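dumping this here before i forget
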Amino acid sequence: MHLLRSCLPVALAATLWLGFPGAAAAAPATTKGTATYRWVDEHGEVHYGDQIPPQYAKQERTVLNAEGIPVQTMEAQKTPEQQANEAQERAQQMRQRQHDAFLVTTYTSVKDIESLRDARLEQMQGQRAAADQYVETLRSRLATLQTRAFNFRPYSANPAARRMPDDLAENLIRTVSEMQTQAAALTARTQEEAELRAQFQADIERYKELHTIHSQ
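structure:
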């Protein structure tokens, strides 16, 4: 294999090689129909040859014609992580284009978006009010059960008190568990409401941008 090395950086080497009289002689001579490749090693040095060493076959390389003029550049082989990132970016761009199309075809003004936002928020607030009322019912039930529990061991101060009935203990446990579940659900609803507001605000800002772009 015929190789030439140059210690100049790639851009400078290409400029000198193409810019000075007789520079074509600096590149290796090739027979007609034989490609010459140019690549850079791990030290930043430029190499030419009619074959690329296996360790550089996956890196970016340039194909030169018989006159030493670049005719094709082959990109370096991407790592699986790079390929996954690019696929994710393309998917995100596609989702953004689809959402943009949805915005401009669904709404005629910002007021349309605000009206839908307010309707959704009103629905969520109605659900929250019902959940709050249910939690109050659970609190009242728990208070009643606790009052009953004080008549039995181990909560009663009466040494002769009987052991707490199983059904009362089960109701206490069940009620406390349900209150915890509802508290978590209310927290989730609060988060959902905040996310809904943020999403609609982002849609409003994006709609304004798209409307401005289409108006130009």
